[in-house]
Amino acid sequence: MLVIIWAKIVLASPRSLCHHDAVAQELIIRRRRIGPDDLQRIRELIVAEGERGRAYLSRRLCRVWDWRQANGRFREIACRDLLRQLETRRLIQLPAMLRPARRPGYQNPVRAPKLPEPAPPPGALRDWSHRIELTLVQSRTERQLFNGLMGTYHYLGYRQPTGAQLKYLARDAQGPLAALSFGPAAFHLGPRDQFIGWSARQRESAAALAGH
Fold first, then answer.
1. d(CA 130, CA 196)
2. Which contiguous run of DSSP H or E holds residue 29?
3. Which of 37, 52, 111, 129 is close enough to 56 for a disulfide, judged by CB 3.0 to 4.6 Å?
4. What is the pTM for the complete model shown?
5. In this model, does residue 92 exceed pLDDT 90?
6. Burial class (CB in 10 A: 0-12, 13-18, 19+), 145
7. How distant, in Å, are the alpha carbons of 107, 160, 188 from that of 195?
């Protein structure tokens, strides 16, 4: 009996899982379910094509799974994070990085935008708020302006965000007034889920539609 109990403990430990061909149970990472067949496919891909680098593996795996965002683009950044989490759990062994990783706290270099001289607002906001135009950032020029505003005026500077993003510029006749960004909501947030009334399955399908 003692031997049987000891064997169960070993098989349930994270260290032992990295030496077996399948996970003991299904995992959910970055809102994707990872089962034994998925894990085996990832391991085979690493063996066959791992020398081409981690970024290549994430792009390749996205296409194998056809894993896309709502806008149709592949979830390459999420896939890279998924692979790192699997390695942290000692379920896979990723190849060595071809290039050094960015150090913690790295800030993307951006140029300060050229803006007109600021002028005092013409009275109370309620009197001229109708002149403000809110536009979705879409073009390269708009993205450069948005990133420049964030890098110049935000106290944390500009950092490349992860996940789906909606970015807006608020302008008036003189130029930009504000930059606003909305990103994906946290997958699991107890008070929010309880307030909305989401079950675990409802949250899994609907959380991608929420933002903050």
1. 33
2. strand 27-29
3. 52
4. 0.56
5. yes
6. buried
7. 36, 31, 13
Cα(17)–Cα(24) distance, integer angstroms: 7
Range 101-118 burial, b when 16+ CB lie within 10 A, else e: eeeeeeeeebeebeeeee
Residue 101 banded pLDDT, cuts 50, 70, 90: low
Average pLDDT, the chain: 80
The per-residue DSSP string of 131-153 comes to G-EEEE--SHHHHHHHHHHHHHH
Residue 74 token pair = 């592949």
Quick count: other Cβ atoms within 10 Å of Cβ 141? 9
The encoded tokens of residue 150 equal 């964030």
What residues contact 85, with CB distance under 8 A and at least 6 apart? 29, 30
Sign of the Cα torsion 210, 165, 89, 26 reads positive
For 107-144, write each residue's pLDDT tens digit.
667 888 888 777 777 777 777 778 889 999 999 999 99
